[in-house]
Amino acid sequence: MKKALSLLLALTMALALTACGGTETADTQEADTETEDTAEAVELYVFAAASLTESLDQIIEQYKEVAPNVTIVPTYDSSGTLKTQIQEGADCDVFLSAAPKQMNQLDTEGGEENTEGLDFVDSATRLDLLENKVALAVPEGNPAGIETFDQLAELLKSGGVALAIGNSDVPVGQYTQKIFSYYGLDEAAIADCLTYGSNVKEVTTQVSEGAVDCGIIYATDAFSAGLATVDGATAEMCGQVIYPAAVLKTSQHPDEAKAFLDYLSTADASAVFESVGFTPLG
């Protein structure tokens, strides 16, 4: 009788322990599910050069599947304008510039170009993300018969062409100034031939609408706008067109910002950049 009671007691305790273990597992699984479902919603503010608009918009859509709790809020404009907005206190987590100059101006490790001692860039996250090309684009049908930069230089000297370029405070305008210098052109002397845009998209629009005979823009913008390019600038003419990217020290979500920056160097993101003519470097 005592043996039977002992066996019954042991069986009861075993069943109780099994039930407790099952409850703990179920509770743990439920907690894990709740953690996944209630991950903190984060907004990341990404400032990017206007020439990145089409490709980055597509990548942002892709990123929703990678990090569904992260909403990317992009702002596109000239790198110079974005640099100024960052300097003036605009919310920005990640900065993608169309040239090293604007990034250097915000980076304590930016060398001589950081003339104001600004300290906005997390230098440890900075990388050269992409390379682009400067191109000579023409309207549909190329009515003026522009074929090369060499020809353009001669037409500018004679005053026989209308050319759209970027302002001097934006990277595409600064690359254009280097091309002028390469050909020995004085911008002030050829002013009657020039119209300006505050970013590369404005220059591209002037060419697309046939308001000018040609424009100096990025090859990627010409591709996105369906414009023909008749010549490309060499590195000797204007240097390499490098797009640096970095997380900013002012970011309220540095971990999520770094994760997004890392994603921009993945195969999926690189494929998008390559599809419009960028060369991924990161």
Explained architecture:
There is one protein chain. With 282 residues, this protein is an alpha/beta fold. 45% of the residues lie in helices and 20% in strands. The chain has eleven helices and eleven strands. The chain has helices at residues 2-37, 53-66, 79-87, 100-105, 149-158, 171-182, 200-208, 219-225, 235-238, 254-263, 267-275, and strands at 42-49, 70-77, 94-96, 127-132, 134-138, 163-166, 194-197, 214-218, 228-232, 241-247, 279-280. Strands 2-1-3-10-4-11 form a six-stranded mixed beta sheet. Helix 2 (53-66) runs antiparallel to helix 11 (267-275). The chain starts with a helix and ends with a strand. Residues 1-36 have low confidence and may be disordered.
What gap, in angstroms, lies between the N and C termini? 78 Å
Number of helices in the DSSP assignment: 11
Low-confidence stretches: 1-36
Structural class call reads alpha/beta
The major β-sheet equals: 6 strands, mixed
Compressed to H and E, one letter per element, the order equals HEHEHEHEEHEHEHEHEHEHHE
Provide the spatial order of strands within the biggest beta sheet.
Answer: 2-1-3-10-4-11
Q: Provide the helix percentage.
A: 40-55%
The protein's oligomeric status is single chain
Please indicate the percent range of residues in DSSP E strands (runs of 2 or more): 15-25%
Number of strands: 11
Quote the average pLDDT: 90
Principal-axes shape call:
globular
Taking all Cα atoms into account, the compactness measure Rg is 28 Å
